[in-house]
Amino acid sequence: MRRGETIAKPVYDHSVGIFREPVPFRSAPVLIIEGLHPLYTQKLRREIDLGIFVDPSRAVKRRWKIRRDCGDRGYEREAVMAEILAREPDYKLYVDVQKVYAEAVVKIDDTRLRASSILENPGERYSVRLIQEVLEAGPSAVDLTIDLSALFRLAEGEFSIAFQRDDYYGKRVSVLTVDGELHRSMVEGLEAKLQALAGSTGPICDRAEGDRVTSTGMAQLLLSWRLLEKLQFHLAKA
Length: 238
Prior knowledge:
The chain is of the alpha+beta class and 238 residues long. The chain is built from seven helices and nine strands, in the order E-E-H-E-H-H-E-H-E-H-E-E-H-E-E-H. The strands form two sheets. Strands 3, 4, 5, 6, 7, 8 and 9 form a seven-stranded mixed beta sheet that branches. A two-stranded antiparallel sheet has the order 1-2. The longest helix is centred in the C-terminal third of the chain and has 23 residues, at 215-237.
């Protein structure tokens, strides 16, 4: 695909648990490869310009899998739990280790906030920790706006933001933790910049009710920013 060639992509049918006939998959200037093992071998890692590892907590991961397999694929809950327990050792051995090689790791856990509105539906609000390798040359400046007046009037929903530097498997990283939901006005500058870079006018990230940006949506914005800045850098070198 680096050479612009079309490949035959395997297709797995989850409803019956077998592979169907492969389908043609054409190359493109930008390719997104998604799956369990994209960073597992050194050969694969050499071909990837930006590696992202999504790392939900055990509780979140189990809840997502049960919801998908029982709700969308028709499996029994007991069978899904048995599969989860049977595969956990393999996950630690062959999947979890790949976050060592990722340029960005997205850790997702249940919210730490305890407002009554959040307690009504805790499974849909998350605390997201975005761990990224420190850039030698940072991206262009973008403001993150917080309206203190709205906070004092209780017009904002509950949220928290924390930032720190750290070491992560031998790499210097920045760690941004976002919990709760942010008003869209806080990220308008970043979203407008991304829309300009991508040539788009639509929303860049997931939204909650009331036009708020979720913690996972904030991670989407920041990763999109990193991706588009890196893409511009590579195009400028070409």
